[in-house]
Design a protein that fits this description.
By secondary structure, the chain is α+β, with helices and mostly antiparallel strands. It has helices spanning 2-27, 50-73, 88-103; strands spanning 107-109, 113-125, 128-138, 143-145, 160-169, 176-182. A four-stranded antiparallel beta sheet has the order 2-3-5-6. A two-stranded antiparallel sheet has the order 1-4.
Length: 191
């Protein structure tokens, strides 16, 4: 008799545990028309680290160089492709330079590399991110040819050029190039 009573208690306990489990599971489902709090976006925007911002500017600048190199390899044709990696204001200046390249009958061969880069500053406001960096471009592997296929590059050119490059973006990545100015201070490419 004692064994029968115990078996009945185990069955009742199991039934209670199962019922509570089903009740909890059904309560965890969102009710129609009620927002699911766990999937709501946080109220405070996440702030990226300097390392994340540096990684983003490097990826964005490399994308810019890839597009610019391809436009110049195509003799400056279809320069509107630069708009995919820059702001419209910067793209206007680039397209002017590309048109001069095209009218001179020039085309490039090879790829521009980043020798060094450093994050100068960045900020975040309601419209997104603004980033400035010092970048040293290396064109050692780039040649510029005229319409006859003859190199127009001086054999004694300095293959590295320092720039101050600014970016902006609504999100951390991708960033768009807003300006790319020749750096007039001490040449940091040789450091």
């Amino acid at each position: 008799m004692f064994g029968q009573k115990r078996a009945g208690s185990v069955a009742v306990t199991a039934l209670i545990v199962l019922s509570v489990g089903l009740l909890v599971a059904s309560c965890s489902q969102p009710l129609p028309g009620v927002p699911n709090v766990s999937s709501a976006s946080p109220t405070k925007a996440s702030v990226p680290s300097d390392q994340e911002m540096y990684a983003s500017l490097m990826a964005s600048y490399q994308a810019y160089l890839d597009v610019a190199d391809q436009i110049l390899a195509d003799g400056g044709q279809s320069a509107n492709r630069i708009e995919s990696v820059s702001t419209s204001a910067y793209a206007t200046d680039f397209k002017t330079d590309a048109a001069e390249y095209a009218s001179a009958g020039l085309r490039s061969v090879g790829s521009t590399e980043v020798k060094t880069a450093s994050l100068q500053s960045w900020s975040q406001d309601g419209s997104g991110f603004k980033v400035t960096a010092y970048v040293c471009d290396d064109v050692t592997g780039v040649d510029v040819l005229n319409s006859e296929g003859v190199s127009v590059v001086s054999p004694d050119r300095d293959p590295t050029t320092p720039y101050e490059v600014s970016f902006e973006g609504a999100t951390v990545s991708p960033l768009l190039v807003t300006s790319r100015e020749l750096w007039m201070g001490a040449d940091f490419c040789d450091e």
